Amino acid sequence: MTPEQLLQDLEPLAYADRIRRMVELGRQARQDAATQALLAALATRGFYERQLALFACGGSRDAAQVLRALADPSRLIRGLATRLVPLVGDDAMVLAALDVVDGAGRRLLLAALAGRGRRAVIDRYLDQLAAAGDPVGPPRGRRRDGARGA
């Protein structure tokens, strides 16, 4: 299936059904290289296609794709990726994600982790900040590169 065929198949579906279909494709991608290639192609296209590819991560558990999406130019894509991190990421990926997201995203991610009972990884992150002499992380509204956060 090509990305164009998939988009055509999704068009008549309601939004919630599109998301369900993408999660199903994500599950299928775990064992099917062609589906993995389809999702990878979607992830390099426009906003809508990148969003669909990210929804598929709910089924594929593709933590690498979620981590890449944290740097997406779209705030909506970054927000969706931030909400997916606790679902698909192991502790190492979560720690990497916490270093990538800005202040608001970091707070959202920490709250989502706490809500899922993943306090051990939160403690590890705080220990890393303390060991680096940075008990609070970057200033609110500023990313680590000094630019204003969105």
Which residues sit in consecutive blocks of at least 5 with pLDDT less than 50? none
Main beta-sheet strand count, sense and barrel state: none
Radius of gyration based on Cα positions: 17 Å
Work out the helix count.
Answer: 9
End-to-end Cα distance = 36 Å
The count of domains is 2
* Oligomer state of the chains in this structure: single chain
- Could you give the order of the helices and strands? HHHHHHHHH
Mean pLDDT: 88
What does this structure look like?
It is a single chain. The chain has 150 residues and is mainly alpha-helical. The protein folds into two domains: 1-61, no CATH class; 72-137, no CATH class. It is 69% helix and 0% strand. It has nine helices and no strands. It has helices at 3-10, 15-29, 33-42, 47-60, 63-69, 75-88, 91-100, 103-115, 119-131. The protein starts with a helix and ends in a 19-residue tail after the last helix. The model has no long low-confidence stretch (mean pLDDT 88).
Which features characterize this protein?
mainly alpha, 9 helices
Please describe the topology of this protein:
Layout: H1 3-10, H2 15-29, H3 33-42, H4 47-60, H5 63-69, H6 75-88, H7 91-100, H8 103-115, H9 119-131
Give a nutshell description of this structure.
With 150 residues, the chain is mostly helical. 69% of the residues lie in helices and 0% in strands.
